[in-house]
Design a protein that fits this description.
Distance between the termini: 70 Å
Bound molecules: 1,4-dihydronicotinamide adenine dinucleotide, magnesium ion
Radius of gyration: 23 Å
Shape: globular
Largest sheet: 7 strands, mixed
Strand order of the largest sheet: 14-15-16-13-12-17-18
Strand content: 15-25%
Amino acid sequence: MNELEPRPNPTTSARPELALGYLPAPESMSVLRLRDDYDLFIGGVFVPARSGRRFATENPATEATIALVAEADGGDVDAAVVAARAALASWSGLPGATRGKFLYRLARLLQERAREFAVLETLDGGKPIKESRDVDIPLAAAHFFYYAGWADKLEYAVPGRSIAPVGVCAQIIPWNFPLLMLAWTIAPALAAGNTVVLKPAETTPLTALLFAELVIEADVPPGVINIVTGAGATGAALVEHPDVRKIAFTGSTAVGRGIATAVAGSNKRLTLELGGKAANIVFDDAALDQAVEGIVHAIFFNQGHVCCAGSRLLVQESVVDRVEYKLRQRLATLRVGDPLDKNTDLGAINSRRQLDKIIELYESGISEGATAFQPECVLPDRGHWFAPTVFSGVSPSHRIAREEIFGPVLSVMTFRTPEEAVAKANNTPYGLSAGVWSEKASKVLWMAERLRAGVVWANTFNRFDPASPFGGYQESGFGRVGGAAGLLPYLEVR
Ligand code: NAI
Ligand code: MG
């Protein structure tokens, strides 16, 4: 066989020695106690929406409705903000160590019920169980542990200045890392003495509502954490509420821009964590097998529904054939399918709407002249699916090189010199993350100084830690999550 020719999928009978492939290994759902209906969480209790309206959240792998969830309108949002405001004085007046104890409790309860959270996250959003089990839930708990530690040390975050909480914080989060985004926004806000109203995304509200049960179990005072479910209109009502002092929004650049316009001229603070089109840069001196693993993880983790995904692969021209060959071989071994199967690498696309967006951009890539490679894989009949895709022959003007696809689609381009790699990597309106693969540390550092990105990973990708600040430049947003820097948006510094 020609070394540069892709081989058939080794998980199929084309490789007799592997003919057994992988037997199904589904995670049990018996740990879940699903309800048919879910209410809002306001002032420490579950209450239905005043209008009585509910919307369905589906399992994107089957298109079956999992449950109906209350849809909050302006009146419900107002009730949640009033509850958060009423709880503010006593919560911020607690000794920091006591607030920390509540956060530690939430972290431990999350760990105790980690399996339940992981299964629910996968069911509601479509991500592989091995990711919700090994990344989303442990990292969410880690954020509560980390910020619990800051709660009684806030003065060291801003030495020599007097500090106070900001007030009621509105947190509007997306569907790609539902529980993790909840932890990202709630943990630092609470540590700093604020109270919150959180709105999860309409396709993935269930883990936030399960988290509300932990809030009750942990005896967090009523009103400190409120959760209102609904779609864009619910989010907009929260943004516009006059008693909200700080808004954290994670999602699309278009909605982020609208929120920035809506709060302009008000005294509301805003942090935005928006899209990305990250460059993942591979030099000819890199350990190529290791780099290929990193490339796969950078773009196919969570089906590419990752704001910091390495969606533009820049490969030094002298090794592009070898990298593309190895990449195709590796793609052929990826297992796409049932998200609850412990062997699954790529789960379901989160929604029909997101799948339509991916398909539209995929087709633009074909019509603009790039060449797509997809391994042979059988996609399930029902549900939303997209095969892992690598585009070669991409030019920087193609839409697939410029626009965020937010799906399992990689665009490969080449460069000759480090200067050219920097110019191409920075040729984007975004600036959230980047990756550099080289055996030479001086080259990595030279690149990191010049890449306009909030995070630069060296010989790795998509690594997160609550102690490490994360955030963007330009149209990727502003403000940082994680570390001491992640406390600053939640503190009034005098
Ligand atoms: P989106 O920005 O519409 O949704 C994110 C959150 O904002 C959801 O909770 C939604 O209900 C809420 N929202 C929507 N309209 C709002 C408004 N006018 N006021 C206040 N809140 C509002 O994102 P969508 O449509 O789900 O995804 C579209 C694209 O956005 C994706 O294809 C991807 O490119 C990008 N995106 C980026 C994310 C990131 O992590 N940076 C996360 C999700 C999407
Ligand atoms: Mg869902």
